[in-house]
Amino acid sequence: MFRRAGKTNKAFQWNQCLKSFWREDAAQDLIEYALLTALLALMCTAALSPVAQALSSGVNQVEKKFKNHVDHGLHKGWYI
User: Fold this and answer.
1) Measured between alpha carbons, how far is 23 from 6 in angstroms, rounded to an integer?
2) What DSSP string runs through 8-74?
3) Confidence check: pLDDT of 15 > 70
4) Whole-angstrom Cα distance, residue 74 to residue 76?
5) Which helix (H) or strand (E) holds 4?
């Protein structure tokens, strides 16, 4: 990979590798996209929490009405 005076030097290779990472900004875009995706996921989770609670409340109300309907025998005669 990187050679100096015909020999491979691990410290020199790591130094050159780190310098190339520092100079290049191609990975910066990927990091920004990852952070934006994480932020969007958090926002969606926060926004959907009240929706989920409202749906749960609605389902519970329907369940209570249905149970009341069945307990009082109001369903008789609907089917043979």
Assistant:
1) 26
2) E-HHHHHHHHHHHHHH--HHHHHHHHHHHHHHHHHHHHHHHHHHHHHHHHHHHHHHHHHHHHHHTTT
3) yes
4) 6
5) strand 3-4
Written as one letter, the residue type at 57 is: S
**Alpha-carbon span 20 to 17, nearest angstrom:** 5
Question: Tokens 């309907």, residue?
Answer: 69
Give yes or no for a contact between 1 and 13, defined as CB atoms under 8 angstroms apart.
yes
At 34-62, the pLDDT tens digits run: 999 999 999 999 989 889 999 999 999 99
DSSP designation for 79: -
CA dist., res. 48 & res. 43, Å (int): 9
